[in-house]
Amino acid sequence: MAETNDPVERSESLPVPGLxxxxxxxxxxxxxxxxxxxxVKTSGPAIxxxxxxVFGLMGAFIGLMAVILLLIGLVRLLDNVLPxxxxxxxxxxxxxxxxxxxxIWSKRPHRAAS
Length: 114
Prior knowledge:
About 70% of the residues lie in helices and about 0% in strands. The protein has one domain (about 25-105). It has helices at about 25-80, 85-105. The protein has about 110 residues and is mainly alpha-helical. About 0% of the residues are buried.
């Protein structure tokens, strides 16, 4: 094939007057930089919030399961230790929870109940 000077047939781009020769590379870098900046400012906080929600819910669920298993174990332990039937264990734990609830109720803000 013969060498041709027609710019349509060549794969090279012609220089644009007033622009640097690598203007297309600079424009691409500017677009990529802008997209990265927008992504960091929008997706970054959204990802942090969603992680906090997921880990918070998972921690609350695991904590709830731990409290339930602790209460079951406490009832079984007291049932084996105390000589009477299980009603005594229920009475002791009910009194304990009543006292704990009364203490927490006394620490509330006074305008919260009205």
